[in-house]
Amino acid sequence: MNINYLLVFFLFLSTTVLAQTGTIRGSIKDAKSKEALIGATVRVDGTQLGAAADVEGNFTIANVPAGTHKVLVSFVSYKTKEIPNVRVESGNTTVIDTELDEEGTALQEVVVRGNRATNTEVAVITEIKQLKPIAVGISAQQIQKSQDRDAAAAIRRVPGVSIIDNRFVLIRGLAARYNSVLINDVITPSTEVDTRSFSFDLVPSNIIDRMIVFKSGSADLPGDFAGGIVKIYTKRRPEQNFVDAGVTLGYRANTTFQTVQTHTRGGANWLGLWSADQQLPNSFPTQAGNFNNLNAPQRAAYARLLPNSWGLKEITAMPDLRFALNMGRRFDVGDVRVSNLTSINYAMTNQFADIDFNVYQPGATANSIGQQYRDLNYARGTRLGVLHNWSARFSPAFNLEWKTLFNQLSTTETVIREGQNIDNAQDVRSYSQRFENRSILTTQLAGEHTVSELTKINWVGAFGYTGRWEPDWKRARYIRPLESEEPFTITTPNDPTPTETGRFYSRLHEYTASAIGNYEHTFGNPTDREPNRIRFGVYGERKNRDYAARFYGYQTVGNATETLRQRPIGSVFAPENVTGQSGGYSLLDGTRDLDSYRGINSYVAGYVSGDVYFGPKANLTVGFRGEYNDQQVRATIRGTDTQLVSNKIFSPLPSLNFTYKLSERTNLRLAYSASVNRPEFRELAPFRYYDFNLLADIQGNTTLTTATIQNLDAKWEFYPTPNEVISVTGFFKHFNKPIESLLLLQTNGFAYTFFNSQSARSYGVEIEVRKGFANSPSVFLQNTTLVGNVSFINSQVTVGDVVTAPDLSGQINEYRGVTDTERALTGQSPYLINLGAYYAAPKTGWQGNILYNVFGQRIFTVGNIDNPTVYEMPRHVIDINVTKQVGKQLELRFGVQDILNQPVRFSQDFNRDGKVGSDVTSQSADADQNIRTFRRGSYFTVSAIYTFGRRIVVP
Fold first, then answer.
1. Structural domains in the chain?
2. Per-residue pLDDT tens over the stretch 631-670
């Protein structure tokens, strides 16, 4: 009902504004080249009314008093043009399409007009306005104002978008698995092993041209989505030759200059690499049975090949360092215009967290703790990124581009856990020494062909690679009787298990090859503002994944002395102690056949769509997309190649997008689309992975099926000026067989798996406002822009009578009454709020902004009859950034992120009422329980960007 009131109000407002006035619209082009003159000024003489031409050269001036006027058109280096006797009628639109001639005098600076600007706020708003699906976006210009370091930080400024774990995107409150991510129109692979997620922190912000988030589907977009489709466009070609470099120093409260403990990896660790001795020697038997059949001294001899790198060292966490070097070149090779853009980014960061971690006993008593720990977590991260783009314009009808993006991110993480396992009457001291390297490479060759004014063809051939390594992840656990003063002794059970002392190795390689072709034909006059078009295309992709893991656990041979078992972590496994003789240590291989798997996915899609115009105001785009997906998971079991999963599915995906122009500045959009959500390899593979930080096992489910989603959207949008927008969007989604995570029944810790619920629905409203004050008498307000978006969402899942899921052994079972039958959808936030105030004074060189972000509590993991559902709780985040331009070559920036430094908090809904309150300490039946709590620390940055030279290139 409230949404209806808002729509009626805005419609009435827009109608009132247009009363007794008319509109002038048209286009401005270069008289010689016929290129759009972006930013050309159009003014109604004798009034304050005017507009600037957008990226297509189009302009609109609304609220022009009825009558006859003189219109002035001007642009730098062009002759001003006067158009007399322009008649404006009340309620009607007058069209002016004109051209400007260049001035004859030479200028010191020549503006390059050969390229269409796509990275400004006006350009992105114009693009969104012209798109047929419902979409929102953010430009490189706004990212620069916000001083966001990477795509993850930047995209949370977009309506309906929030971030989890500082790298995964949630759209409309839906989990990352419901998003598709494309870089330059090519689907990116998942960067995570355990979930379908793209790690947005791998993309530095300075290589981004713009990001567009599609909220409704269309035939030319991938069908695997429910939240949204994110398109990241990297910078294409420079407008001028340049070289600039920037350095950023960062200070994080609670981390920088603090004494922390870490471990050594050796090698080129500062580049995210590791030394050769961190890898498992090739001489190790490849089969666990062959290794374990050796006698204890033989196995110990292998163990001594592994470095004794268990020792920790204290260091002082230094300030974070980031460096960026950007270069752009344009030159001619004969008649071919060639452009190159290269960007190199490097970062080394530090993060310390003091984490409170609790595991509660199931039962009727609130906050009855079974395990209680304090984790001292220190992580040093490095990132190396390279963007290398080439563009060749052979003619106005043929462009060729080669784009390559490489990012490598590593984390060296050390966790020291101290606390109590009350259930087992033990004091506990545990260690985790983990190194992770993630690499992603995408390279694309793309061509654009203009066959005629009516026909265009484009194609892309792409190759992608994702790699993830965890070399020699060392874990150890010491215990002693509860609350005693006895020395801690290390645990070395005879049956190796990832929860105990041992070494874990894993590596993942995923290769993806893609081919894309699109055809577009325009019917009638191509200069029409809204010509009829038909589009069709194909998308083919082949993905191969190879994942392998090995785990080795230490065992005691005979009766080891207490003195040996009480040695500190740095010397307990010294070579002289790993002998395989009685009283010493040996090694056992705990690897299972299912700890390695292979995934093969073949994906073929074809689409066709067309526009149907019902006069100048109404447009309907009808589309159909067919997707065939063949997903397989295989593993070698007892020496035999075994097929574990084979999902071959054809998905018919129709779509409708309807736009009605209420006025030149106001649109009403309606959209329908069908989409799917496919399980990922890791969710299907019956591989058991242990997450030390969460004290949890994660188990795949081979019975997962593809979810289907029906999507409905309605949007009212109003564009007061080219860089302003007000919009209200309502949406409804129905899910059949949604994929969710589930807590398995287990004592002493957590275990997660994945399953299909019966159905779910989600609906909500999004409100976006972008407001400037260009006509204000106040200079301060003229330089100020306000941006805000708010989303309110409601969701509900019907689980069904039976849950099909595996236990920790991988055995598939049918559970009844294992969890709540109705609740909110996993990962769904009930509300999202993003607010920002931007100030930019070009004459003084000052820029600044203040930004606010919060999301509502969302389900992290679905609970069961013993363990309640776990929620991630809201955090209010405020950022402040200030920039000062010093001369023409130096730019200085200062920023403070997360000023409030509110805790990251995961809590159990003990009383199962669907919400977590503030009472998390009492023993009452209404109390809820904090599981994991820590603060990241406010973050202060100082940056300097120096431009070594810019040379304007004459087209």
1. 2-100 (2.60.40.1120), 121-236 (2.170.130.10)
2. 999 999 888 999 999 999 999 999 999 999 898 889 999 9
